[in-house]
């Protein structure tokens, strides 16, 4: 286990290094010069050259890359090209919003997905199963940004129950904060709920047919307890699996959801900084996301073996993903 | 965080709407309006555009906090390095300038005691300073401080001010209250330049302390002092006790928040999260004018949008002129035909709900230098356009590639232009490009025609020189003739206002005939604030002035 | 994103018999049949857009701006007075084009990589696995936004961005299939009979992995349709005046309270197309599963 962990950590560091090369090169491959954008009103060549010098963009690319890497190793992300403020501050003010959105939508997804999944499995082949399956299929097919627009149209414009958009910080008004998050979290959670429902259903069907469950039943354990006990453990595994697999999708979804509901989150920061060519912010944001993605997947794999001892952690490279998703 | 604690409680939120539902109400009203009237706006756009209002005056009480919603995140708060229009909104609260522009775009003294005195040869400019002023850190404001700041604006690597101060060769502090500038050539726009960020004077003590990081904690002379900036969230200013007219400043605190989406910014204003907002979008003007609790401020602006045609910028801005490829570059008659194809009134109607103004030249109608000759507009004349196209013998449809920044408004504009030009024999292919990339392409000369705008300057030279001079920084079309170069320089050097007006009356029609820039429309400035606030002032430069703003004494005012 | 991206590996076997049975099973499954018919219908509508569209989708009419649905324009007119029905048809065409190109790109790049990684476990696998890890560490949208910014927004580049984002999933499916098949007796037999690596991969592994790939493609297309719509919604996908379903949503968003029909119809079409492909994908997966158990 220790060796395995060490190996995975080494892999993660290597992956992060590769990501840093890709980001650095990619950012510089974008047309559009941040110095030119900063010179704004008056892009005089001398001015632009001066700005490039001030930002260190006049140095050879390998030097820029190594300097950036060296600073990052000390967790110093540099300053935003646009505002001149430390990138770390910029990112930290945005991350909580996105984390809240992600956590709430996971909650929504888990609640809906597990409940319907269990019901569908227990009532396999009956109308309830059919309805749950159809709903899941539909949930998977609705693009969440369109669902967001429709949600605003219905709940904000027609019914007036929820705010159309805008973000209320938790510190200012917890109720207002929740109200401003209900729709975004539901929208982002729907697709996930569908995936969780399907996984829960299929693993429950498998479990309900397993010998030890039949034994438990034969021994007179009431059916609802059988379902409850096994459903809970399986659901946890399902949610974990999906968290690992769908994290990337969750982040992408958050970008668009934040755009529609104008939440000041991390996803919007990434897109905005691409548009303003704020190199240090893009680079830092992608590195933080990649690190988060890798860490969560590592954690999921470890937790996975804890929650379900029947599954041994595989030592094959990229031992997560396709194989596990196919259970 | 308790900024709200110091704001006036109770009264300002009782417009009979639940707070959380207000943004929804914003949309609901729009929907209801659309349903009730079949999409016809309730406000006659022409009337709304004509009812200019720069301020609502009413007695105000002392104290309170004002939250101002900006259209985007300001860049660095260092007057030497800052380049965005939105940054100027924040500077307006905390950094006064040697000069200011007034409601008629005339230059008036602010930190200077009088207008500059210009020597007969136009090469020496003397500026007398006001006495007894202090920076917001208590440092004394004097000629040495002015010299330090102007030299920094001119010489700091990466200074965005260096071009506009380029004619200044030397700055000298004659005595504590007099500054003398020596110029390399006569330069009439200097006072106007010093009425913008180039005229902002920074505390020398703070400059010593922070150097290049001045923007992290800027100190100037101004009614409010900088308190804090939370990245991507807010900028907070507080009334300064060191300000020379601190008694005349009613408010305690200003908070600036960037909310990029027009509709959302308005929703926040309506729900009470904001007290003032800049840039009410044309689609929202009707909503604001119909709402009892809100006041719409409305001013003509100096901004414009147009189409730059690449004529001789094949190798990039600043490189020697080389004819560009493409039908519009090759034949002046086709450029004229293209310009004649565009019905500016319909553009304004379809894209901006009729709330902006057609524009046909670089000088805004509000300028003191505007004359019949500078404001003349070639008529929309598709027949004449078709005739011109036929004369050239070009095979129709004539292909034109139009580079458009890919935001929704500009894309709509591009598609309207495309449709109009199709009527007269042009086949316009749109090339939607991210804004950042489009500047790159424009500077490299890699385009045929480019939809681009200019935030505008009160002085005409700021709207002409860099677009038409050989090698001008924004001369994307590559237009270059010795004759116009000489005329542009002569007009900028002319310090007698009357003769200068004549020069522009002669110059502008000549420039227009090249059709290197085909002007389309001029924005109007729409800002809005709560009805229980008064004294918020907007001038045609688009800057929201907060110095005299405050909460109306004893209750809400009606803005008339 | 909202689409389950991993196709379940499907057991292979002697091919023709399985396929024949699979087709019959697919046609007997009402959901599968419905999916197949809908997919065929949408594809036909996209191909025949020039014939079916009542009007030129680019013809503006400043007198008919944001008209409600009416007999002359069944789905209303947009902010420039263009016929929405015609634009939806042409939009479907560009959206499906982007999706097809994207999936094609992903398959062309990922299939060889997945095969090699699964077959040469020692040298190729670690390299390819790092590559997939790196690609996966970029959230799809960030990757796509970056690529679109680098390449410039256009239909083709949207397809590239969406396609690149699908590469790691396809690599993984193919790698898993190759791993599984390499252990099968018929592969051992081929090797024993003296077949070279290339021949084994091309003649024995690839054909048997085709089922899994087919399912993956069916799942990949709706994901790409949604991906295109998201990119276009952010202004980085297909560009006006070319209509695509995402472009229509993006340009209608500012008016969506005044003219909801501009947002409702293109969105419904996206949902319907995605649903059709998902139905077909599910049914295919079941039909190709020799155990024949609906899970």
Automatic annotation (TrEMBL), chain A:
<protein>
    <submittedName>
        <fullName>Peptide ABC transporter</fullName>
    </submittedName>
</protein>
<dbReference type="InterPro" id="IPR000515">
    <property type="entry name" value="MetI-like"/>
</dbReference>
<dbReference type="GO" id="GO:0071916">
    <property type="term" value="F:dipeptide transmembrane transporter activity"/>
</dbReference>
<comment type="similarity">
    <text>Belongs to the binding-protein-dependent transport system permease family.</text>
</comment>
<dbReference type="InterPro" id="IPR045621">
    <property type="entry name" value="BPD_transp_1_N"/>
</dbReference>
<keyword id="KW-0813">Transport</keyword>
<keyword id="KW-1133">Transmembrane helix</keyword>
<dbReference type="Pfam" id="PF19300">
    <property type="entry name" value="BPD_transp_1_N"/>
</dbReference>
<dbReference type="Pfam" id="PF00528">
    <property type="entry name" value="BPD_transp_1"/>
</dbReference>
<dbReference type="GO" id="GO:0005886">
    <property type="term" value="C:plasma membrane"/>
</dbReference>
<feature type="transmembrane region" description="Helical">
    <location>
        <begin position="235"/>
        <end position="261"/>
    </location>
</feature>
<feature type="transmembrane region" description="Helical">
    <location>
        <begin position="101"/>
        <end position="122"/>
    </location>
</feature>
<keyword id="KW-1003">Cell membrane</keyword>
<dbReference type="InterPro" id="IPR035906">
    <property type="entry name" value="MetI-like_sf"/>
</dbReference>
<feature type="transmembrane region" description="Helical">
    <location>
        <begin position="281"/>
        <end position="304"/>
    </location>
</feature>
Automatic annotation (TrEMBL), chain B:
<dbReference type="InterPro" id="IPR030678">
    <property type="entry name" value="Peptide/Ni-bd"/>
</dbReference>
<protein>
    <submittedName>
        <fullName>ABC transporter substrate-binding protein</fullName>
    </submittedName>
</protein>
<feature type="compositionally biased region" description="Basic residues">
    <location>
        <begin position="1"/>
        <end position="18"/>
    </location>
</feature>
<feature type="signal peptide">
    <location>
        <begin position="1"/>
        <end position="35"/>
    </location>
</feature>
<dbReference type="GO" id="GO:0015833">
    <property type="term" value="P:peptide transport"/>
</dbReference>
<keyword id="KW-0732">Signal</keyword>
<dbReference type="GO" id="GO:0042597">
    <property type="term" value="C:periplasmic space"/>
</dbReference>
<feature type="domain" description="Solute-binding protein family 5">
    <location>
        <begin position="106"/>
        <end position="473"/>
    </location>
</feature>
<dbReference type="InterPro" id="IPR000914">
    <property type="entry name" value="SBP_5_dom"/>
</dbReference>
<dbReference type="GO" id="GO:1904680">
    <property type="term" value="F:peptide transmembrane transporter activity"/>
</dbReference>
<dbReference type="InterPro" id="IPR039424">
    <property type="entry name" value="SBP_5"/>
</dbReference>
<feature type="region of interest" description="Disordered">
    <location>
        <begin position="1"/>
        <end position="21"/>
    </location>
</feature>
<dbReference type="Pfam" id="PF00496">
    <property type="entry name" value="SBP_bac_5"/>
</dbReference>
<dbReference type="GO" id="GO:0043190">
    <property type="term" value="C:ATP-binding cassette (ABC) transporter complex"/>
</dbReference>
From TrEMBL, chain C:
<dbReference type="Pfam" id="PF00528">
    <property type="entry name" value="BPD_transp_1"/>
</dbReference>
<feature type="transmembrane region" description="Helical">
    <location>
        <begin position="213"/>
        <end position="238"/>
    </location>
</feature>
<dbReference type="InterPro" id="IPR035906">
    <property type="entry name" value="MetI-like_sf"/>
</dbReference>
<dbReference type="InterPro" id="IPR025966">
    <property type="entry name" value="OppC_N"/>
</dbReference>
<keyword id="KW-1133">Transmembrane helix</keyword>
<dbReference type="GO" id="GO:0005886">
    <property type="term" value="C:plasma membrane"/>
</dbReference>
<dbReference type="InterPro" id="IPR050366">
    <property type="entry name" value="BP-dependent_transpt_permease"/>
</dbReference>
<keyword id="KW-0472">Membrane</keyword>
<keyword id="KW-1003">Cell membrane</keyword>
<dbReference type="InterPro" id="IPR000515">
    <property type="entry name" value="MetI-like"/>
</dbReference>
<feature type="transmembrane region" description="Helical">
    <location>
        <begin position="156"/>
        <end position="174"/>
    </location>
</feature>
<feature type="domain" description="ABC transmembrane type-1">
    <location>
        <begin position="92"/>
        <end position="281"/>
    </location>
</feature>
<dbReference type="Pfam" id="PF12911">
    <property type="entry name" value="OppC_N"/>
</dbReference>
<keyword id="KW-0812">Transmembrane</keyword>
<keyword id="KW-0813">Transport</keyword>
